[in-house]
Design a protein that fits this description.
With 259 residues, the protein is of the alpha/beta class. Helices cover 41% and strands 15% of the residues.
């Protein structure tokens, strides 16, 4: 079995403060050897950088998450520019648009998103996208501000939107929600999309798998996401592991030989 790449894991979150090293060890024990760790707030970037520097196979991304738009400050964009120069990032993120938030300030989100896309473009870095109820708006931005691809995290758009993301160099993330039998639309979507367009993710500590419903999610549960994707696509799990890991490494420009 190829090693697995969790392309969206907030292992730096406070929910892991008590047992982070153990969780990482448990993930490695089941074959999850690499994790992309996206930043969401400027105040967390230093700790994120230190964590990834101290743990082999953890890769940092830095970004200003749209959900926390009211907590970001204009100076954070200058800070992000400096972080991208000094923090050894593999991507910019987690960034995007969230129009599901009640009374969302869409204009503020758009300004923040476009500024970060421009930084990613100028730095030659892919981006990690958070998108809720906003795929068309995000795709419009990506057409105007061309970045070197990236990941559309927790993808739940249409097949048509997926094709546009693919044309722009993106891969689409599927995770714990795929393990729920009731997720019929999502499972059908994963079945219809080509495997070379997909990557695996957990979004730990959120969006946990069905077997741990109501509990904290963990990167150690990524094999369950793999099993669900292999099931809906009627593919050999080993082949799904190989292709999704290769997809992740290609987007991030990483050399990921078998461990």
């Amino acid at each position: 079995m190829s090693p697995l790449f969790d392309t969206h894991c907030h292992i730096d979150a406070k929910e892991f403060d008590a047992d982070r090293a153990q969780v990482i060890a448990e993930a490695r024990a089941v074959g999850v050897t690499r994790m992309l760790v996206p930043g969401v707030l400027a105040d967390g970037w230093d700790a994120l950088q230190s964590l990834c520097a101290s743990e082999p196979g953890l890769y940092p991304a830095y970004g200003l998450h749209p959900v926390y738009c009211d907590r970001h400050r204009l100076a954070d964009l200058d800070r992000l520019a400096r972080q991208l120069e000094s923090g050894a990032p593999v991507a910019v993120g987690e960034i995007g648009l969230d129009f599901q938030i009640p009374a969302a300030d869409r204009d503020a989100q758009m300004r923040l998103f476009e500024a970060q896309l421009a930084m990613a473009r100028d730095a030659g870095l892919p981006v990690v996208l958070h998108v809720r109820k906003a795929h068309d708006a995000v795709l419009d931005c990506l057409r105007r501000i061309r970045v070197p691809g990236g990941f559309a995290h927790a993808f739940n758009g249409s097949v048509q939107q997926a094709a546009i993301y693919e044309s722009l160099g993106f891969r689409l993330g599927f995770g714990g929600m795929l393990t729920y039998v009731r997720s019929t639309r999502l499972r059908r979507l994963a079945r219809e999309l080509p495997l070379d367009l997909l990557v695996l993710e957990t979004d730990a500590p959120d969006l946990t798998v069905a077997s741990h419903h109501g509990e904290r999610n963990s990167p150690a549960y990524l094999p369950e996401c793999l099993a669900a994707l292999a099931e809906v696509k009627d593919e050999d799990p080993a082949e799904v592991a190989r292709i999704t890991t290769a997809n992740a490494c290609a987007v991030l420009g990483l050399d990921c030989p078998g461990d």
